[in-house]
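Figure caption, in words: inputs first, then the predicted bound structure.
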Amino acid sequence: MRDGLNIKWPEGLKRTKARECVLSVLKDSNRPLSAMEIFEEIEGRGHTIWLSTVYRVLDAFEEKGLVIKTSLLNNELTLYDLKATGHRHYAVCVECHKIVTMTNCPMKDFKPSFKDDEIEVIGHKVEVYGYCKDCR
Ligand SMILES: [Zn+2]
Ligand SMILES: [Zn+2]
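Bound structure (zinc ion present):
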């Protein structure tokens, strides 16, 4: 269990066994997870769940703003993390798909400007990939 994570169950979302299992796995992880990893962790804890259920739960969590979905490697890899974790970026190893959390936000001072304030910027995505220590 990670410290300092204050997770409130989203309003209007029914508590089900599957949803509680998924939330508990995300809470216990110190890195974002793929749906498959969440599925395997739940099975490993002795619960029975369908992978399709994990995806449905994650979609519901994303819709309720509980979870952030990040796609890497041209959408080949989709990861889920709790929004309460805060603003983070990840780099992925193209060889073994290991995920490494960036210690900063490289876009912090990125201030794009538009004619006539056409766009109000509310967020950004950064995709970084390379070789991890083991694969170099
Ligand atoms: Zn690697
Ligand atoms: Zn950022």
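The domain at 17-130 is CATH 1.10.10.10 (Arc Repressor Mutant, subunit A).
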